[in-house]
Specification:
heterodimer, A: about 260 residues, alpha/beta, six-stranded mixed β-sheet, four-stranded antiparallel β-sheet, about 35% helix, B: about 260 residues, mainly alpha
Chain lengths: ~260, ~260
């Protein structure tokens, strides 16, 4: 297993009331090497906290997270994080945003880092925008930079936190197809979080359905569509079956979080 | 014509018109040169003071006082602002002092500083320092504190150590705030120099103003005021230029927002 999670637990203490709040409880998950694994769950279920723990940005209260059998102890070059809202540094150009990880990890010379960054900028389709600042780009382009930045450190696993949630519907569709193309070219293991069921079904080899808070893995579904997948499969009858099945699994939880 | 250029032309026309009106009305309506003098008389006096070397001497003294005081204000204000932004203990310890000193008009300290440090350069350096350090410190502190937490988290996610976060995130993000603090500090520092020299000095532009006032040399008074104004405007232009060099991303962010 590329990524192996056992008995993961996270609780916060509410500063106002002193009450303990379980966000993630008894979570087990295995992700295979080279796999595209999506997690869907009702909003506010603790998906993002879960992903931050896998990256090492947040320390778990209990349980263990192993990458290739080694327990993680913080952010590492074996994992690259793609943030929901870009989180690009506004004072850095596209090129400098992408080289950042290599700069601070000091694994390569500046020239090598730049050459690698330029290859990734090409991979995500942003040639010609190297010298632009983030605010000069559209939302879709910013998320391409975000992806190139994560790929630059050549991670084993890409952790993606609802990266297309803020994009308009058409840009989101195109970005999904782009992501599949890039994933197939790079062969990375991907752990992708979304609240959109059809996005998960289109992208994933397997979809893990999370319960409402505290988050656990409720069910894992195999998605059997062949690859490469065209966007058109979303408008076929076969596509609706897994979408509907996942919706029925999270409907009760979703309604509860909707009402509260 | 582009809007910016036509604005500049209008500004120059307005200045020339204003000076012409001034010259004309003084010549027509004012007798004697005790109260107001025309721009031509100010110019003549300016040339005289330059030729005699007087202006250069005073300017050198004031300039040195300002430069030392302002350099000290930068050297103390930026690191202390960073320290207060990153340590809760430092903030708790220093905040009452900063609040107390910042709300006291520093000019009120001038007589005390002159008693302590004499009428030489040291008392003015201290006055410039105490005037300029707080805007610089407070702006640095604010600049670091308003940084989007996600930008720091993203840096950590890619393996940045605390000193990388400091050098590659906290510093560049706070540059626009620091430059704004420097601009505020310059205008406060100039007030410090002039007031300090008015109250007790042996040389400097403020001293020149004082002696000109005592001897009813109205033209020399105007020369002093214009020199101070030019120094203020010049420093502000220089700092704005510095900002475009240090934070080019911000400039294009402003034009993109329009």
């Amino acid at each position: 297993m590329k990524l192996s999670i056992r008995g993961l637990h996270k609780s916060f203490v509410k500063p106002t009331t002193g009450e303990r709040l379980d966000v993630v409880r008894d979570l087990d998950l295995d992700v295979r090497a080279g796999e595209f694994f999506c997690i869907v769950g009702p909003s506010g279920c603790g998906k993002t906290t879960f992903l931050r723990m896998v990256d090492g940005l947040v320390a778990p209260t209990g349980g263990e997270i192993r990458v290739d059998g080694r327990q993680i102890g913080g952010p590492g070059p074996d994992r690259g994080f793609v943030f929901q809202n870009g989180a690009l540094w506004p004072w850095r150009t596209v090129l400098r945003n992408v080289t950042f990880g290599l700069e601070v990890q000091r694994r390569q010379s500046r020239a090598e880092a730049e050459a690698r960054a330029r290859r990734l900028i090409d991979l995500v389709g942003l040639v010609g925008f190297e010298a632009h600042y983030p605010h000069e780009l559209s939302g879709g382009m910013r998320q391409r930079v975000n992806l190139a930045r994560a790929l630059a450190i050549d991670p084993e696993i890409l952790l993606m936190d609802e990266p297309f949630a803020a994009l308009d519907a058409q840009t989101r569709e195109l970005m999904q197809a782009e992501l599949l193309r890039i994933w197939q070219e790079t062969g990375k293991t991907v752990l992708f979080i979304t609240h959109q069921i059809e996005e998960a079904v289109y992208l994933a080899d397997r979809v893990g359905v999370f319960s409402a808070r505290p988050a656990r893995v409720k069910t894992i579904l195999d998605v059997k569509f062949s690859r490469p997948r065209a966007l058109a499969i979303k408008r076929t009858a076969e596509f609706l079956a897994p979408v509907d099945e996942i919706w029925r699994l999270i409907e009760a939880d979703a309604r509860r979080s909707f009402a509260s | 014509m582009p809007v910016q250029r036509s604005n500049a032309v209008l500004g120059i026309v307005s200045l020339i018109g204003g000076f012409a009106l001034w010259e004309l009305s003084v010549r027509l309506f004012v007798h004697g040169d005790l109260i107001v003098v025309p721009p031509s008389a100010i110019w003549t006096t300016f040339v005289r003071l330059v030729r005699s070397g007087e202006l250069a001497t005073h300017l050198a003294v004031s300039g040195a006082e300002f430069a030392y005081g302002f350099a000290l204000a930068i050297a103390a204000g930026i690191p202390l602002g960073m320290l207060m932004a990153s340590s809760r203990t430092a903030r708790a310890l220093l905040d009452p002092w900063v609040a107390a000193f910042n709300s006291t008009p520093r000019i009120a300290l001038a007589p005390l500083l002159i008693v302590w440090l004499g009428i030489g350069i040291a008392s003015k350096v201290a006055l410039v320092f105490s005037s300029a350090v707080f805007p610089i410190l407070i702006n640095t502190l604010t600049g670091v504190r308003v940084i989007d937490a996600e930008l720091v988290e993203a840096a950590r996610a890619f393996g940045a150590r605390p000193r990388d976060v400091f050098a590659k995130v906290l510093i560049p993000a706070s540059v626009p705030f620091i430059v704004a603090g420097l601009r505020l500090g310059v205008s406060r520092g100039i007030i410090g120099v002039v007031v300090g020299e008015l109250l007790g000095a042996t040389a400097g532009i403020g001293y020149m103003l004082y002696t000109a006032g005592q001897t009813f040399d109205t033209a020399a008074l105007f020369v002093g005021v214009v020199v101070i104004a030019c120094f203020g405007v010049g420093s502000d232009v220089a700092l704005r230029w510095l900002e475009t060099r240090l934070a080019p991303w911000r400039l294009s962010a402003e034009s993109a927002a329009q």
